[in-house]
Write a structure and sequence with these properties.
Layout: H1 9-35, H2 39-69, H3 74-105
Length: 120
């Protein structure tokens, strides 16, 4: 049984636009993973796709369930918090592990030295 007929038109349009936008951003990130030339370039696209795409889908879910059930949005907020925190950390750990491996093996894809920190 679906609760979609109970959703007002404005909410249904907004939710569908957010879900489609989130799916498209995630798809673009997946295409970037497939098409970009090296590992370091490939890390960036799916992490942005996962964070922004999931964020748009979660906002659509928040709107849908707040209109239909008038319940707190704790689940969606927690999912958004965990995705926002874990995606950049995973990206950083993968990049550092790959950089270490490439430097040990002598691959030219990795820079030889870390860049100097810049002052703002």
């Amino acid at each position: 049984m679906s609760a979609a007929p109970d959703l007002p038109l404005w909410a249904a349009l907004l939710v569908s636009a957010l879900v489609i936008a989130g799916a498209l951003v995630t798809l673009i990130g997946s295409i970037g993973l497939w098409r970009l030339p090296d590992f370091y370039s490939r890390l960036h696209a799916p992490s942005l796709g996962a964070t922004l795409g999931t964020g748009a889908i979660l906002i659509g879910s928040m709107i849908c369930f707040s209109v239909l059930q008038s319940r707190p949005l704790i689940h969606e907020v927690l999912i958004g918090l965990f995705v926002t925190l874990t995606t950049p950390v995973t990206l950083m750990l993968l990049a550092r592990a790959s950089l270490y491996r490439d430097r040990v093996e002598g691959n030219r894809a990795a820079p030889e030295h870390d860049p100097e920190p810049t002052e703002l």
